Amino acid sequence: MTRRMASGDKPYRVYRGGRAKGKVPTIPRPTGDGGRDGRRSGRVLPEPPGGRRMRRRTTVLLVLLVLFVAFVAWAITGFLSVRSGVEAANARLPADARAALAPQDGLVLNQPTTIALFGTDHAQEIAERASARRSDSIMLVRTDARRNRLAYLSVPRDLRVDIPGIGAGRINSAFQIGGPGLALRTLRNFTGVPINHVVVVDFADFTELIDAMGGITVDNPKPILSNRFDCPYPTQERCQEWQGWRFRQGELELDGYRALVYSRVRENRLDPGETDVTRGERQQRVLQAITGEVASASTLLRLPTLGDDLARPLATDLSTWQFLQLGWRNLRADDSRTLRCRLGGEPSSYGGESILVPSEENRNVIAMFLGVSAPQPPAPGIPLAPGCLVGR
To answer: For residues 16 and 171, what is the distance between their CA atoms, to the nearest angstrom?
Structure first.
């Protein structure tokens, strides 16, 4: 029998919300996917959470990766360039000079280290003077990591000392007789200071080094008017009218040629108290300016192209790694603690040659240089008196 619906019943059931057991909810129709005609409405779907952050992070990582690769390439190229120049400088140093050196105790970076510097000007000396290949400049440089400073000791070239195997003579003649090996033994015997490393600088090439670095800045303590040496003019008439080189007081921007002239000045006509001994102080300033410029950011950035030029004026036993340690030690040193010392003596002559008889105070100055005693300035009113000054 067919069952009839009641008058109030409907042939379907109305869904009134809620989740019936066993029922699957209706998935709402996506919006923005298309219109009524099936075409896209142009609305952009929202970006998944964190997508923009992920893209930004990826970009940063790519930039850092590129910078890291560039840095590694620069470091390797710069190191190889410096190593090439240093190896050539090592080959220029005679074997007997290495034999005269005291062993380095530990790293240059954190251990006291004494370096002998001999400045020569072969080109000018061979052409103009019989005393060819003598060392025009003699200096000891000592690193002191504990005091965070560098110490300089200028040795007048006319000091009369005992030259091993030769006898008494001017200290700069040791270089002429036996090269850097005999010069090192003479300097060590006279000062009593063990010397760990040596650098021989050829002034003829060091001008090119300064120019390659873009010049140096030197703090000149007093104005200078030199005698008439190194006339810059091409004619004799102009040189007769020329009064000499002038350097004002204060900071000087010097190219290679002017830095060489500044280092050579032996007589300041504005101050009769300045002599060949005080010239060593100017050489110390030039040396400090060069080492400061070598360790500067601008020079480090140009190491791949400049590295080989840095060692071209040198003959040395220092390795590439030791040079880098010295650069860092110089960069970290406190300029206000820099120690500038000089040896001195009494002017005299021997066999028609001008000499300097060493002062008894030189021993005290060497102790100051080594940090054993407190630094004392040269005695006032005595141009060739030994002593030490602190600061730039």
So the answer is: 114
